[in-house]
Amino acid sequence: MREPYYEQSVIRDDEVQENIINSTPAAQRLVHLDVLRGFALLGILLVNFQWFSRPLQAMYVGYDPSLTGINLGADWLISWLAEGKFYPLFALLFGIGFTLMTESATAKGVRFWTVYGRRLLLLALIGLFHLAFIWPGDILLIYAICAVLMLLFFRNTPVQRLWKWTLVLIGVPALLVAVLLVIVLDPVALTAMQKALAHEKAALMDDVARASSVYINGSFSEVTSERIRSYWSYLSLDGIYLLMIVLGYFLLGRWLAVSGKVIDLPAHRRFLRRWAMVGLPLGLLLAALSTALFYQGDIVMLDPGPVVGEFLGLVAGVILPLGYLAAVLLAASKLTWLAPLGRTALSQYLLQSIIWTSVFYGYGLGLWGQVPRVWQLVLAVAFFALQVVISHWWLKRYRFGPAEWLWRSFTYWNWQPFKNEKSS
């Protein structure tokens, strides 16, 4: 049986190995993965942008019924192409990156749990700081938890079983939605459930209004308390669901890494082409159907249309990210301008939150709820372009983004060189 690709190339390639463990220059990186990270940041920003000026509680309300015309079109476009598709892609990339690091560390005899434990500890601390003091939609804490779970329970799982566990972890939430769909298709059962849900919806709408008032009028400390409350409420409702989904994508990323499919691109071009030519259009079709159905009723009241849309969205959320991944990797040589953004992905992710919460929150410019949806789309794309420029400028002078530098220094318990030799 052919051994995993990382044993043939990544671990035995001293340059790549040194990059993973000792932070070598960009020329020795797997640049196509940086390109993919840069692309993923665009989708993350498109999705997160509205939640910089809406409470997280509004996620459970469904789409905003006040949207019409071009604003509804912008919301539909983002829901179709980005929502629920890019956090899986980022989770895949985390799974790939952590796998490369752990396997290389093992091969070099590095004290794995000491180094890796510090890395995950700081990621969790950054996530906690982010959700409490910047924006409650943080995903980093979940990533840190899932990385620990992956290594505790799946580090020695055979390659052939990784994708099977992925199907189990992602399939269980989809199965639960399918069961719910069977229930809501029964008119008698649906009527009874909707009577019970009417009170819950009213309470939810009141909570959305209350949270909005805090973000608009509250002091920084009051907003901080609301951020923590919102995040805890979100975890209470969706925590297990989110952990299963993200861990599933982590394992899929691990499978993609150990099989070499995202490492040795020429050897796996057929796999990538298949996903780009079949998976991408199929994912786009399913996502379009999901989005169209989601707008055909009230998800809170379990109208059948949005429930079917939710199920199709979970399926599209597996297929479309892999289609995006394949298409971007095949075109990576033409998209290298995204690589600097990918190299500073953690810093740029945090920058998105810092800038736009400062624009929208009451303790900043106070534009909460005042920017139409279409202009949110325009601003997100424009800011992404600015981030590309910033990342190019930054990496001409510094070896890492500021958050990446801190993360690496803490991981190896040694201050890493920060400035580029050419700029010092």
Structure description:
This protein has 424 residues and is mostly helical. It has one domain. It is 73% helix and 0% strand. The protein is built from 16 helices and no strands. The chain has helices at 5-8, 14-22, 31-48, 69-81, 86-108, 112-133, 140-154, 159-184, 187-217, 220-258, 269-294, 304-330, 339-343, 345-360, 373-395, 402-412. Helix 6 packs antiparallel against helix 7 (140-154), helix 8 packs antiparallel against helix 12 (304-330) and helix 11 runs antiparallel to helix 12 (304-330). It is globular and about 65 Å long. Mean pLDDT is 88; it is low at 1-28.
Rg, alpha carbons: 22 Å
Helix/strand structural class: mainly alpha
Distance between the termini: 50 Å
Poorly predicted ranges (pLDDT <50, ≥5 residues)?
A: 1-28
Whole-number average pLDDT?
88
Strand-residue fraction? Answer: under 5%
Largest sheet: none
Helical residue percent?
over 70%
Q: What sequence of helices (H) and strands (E) makes up the elements?
A: HHHHHHHHHHHHHHHH
Number of strands: 0
What overall form do the CA principal axes indicate?
globular
Count of domains: 1
Instruction: Specify the number of helices.
Output: 16
InterPro entries: Bact_Transport_Assoc, DUF418
Protein name: DUF418 domain-containing protein
Pfam family, one: DUF418
Organism: Halopseudomonas salegens
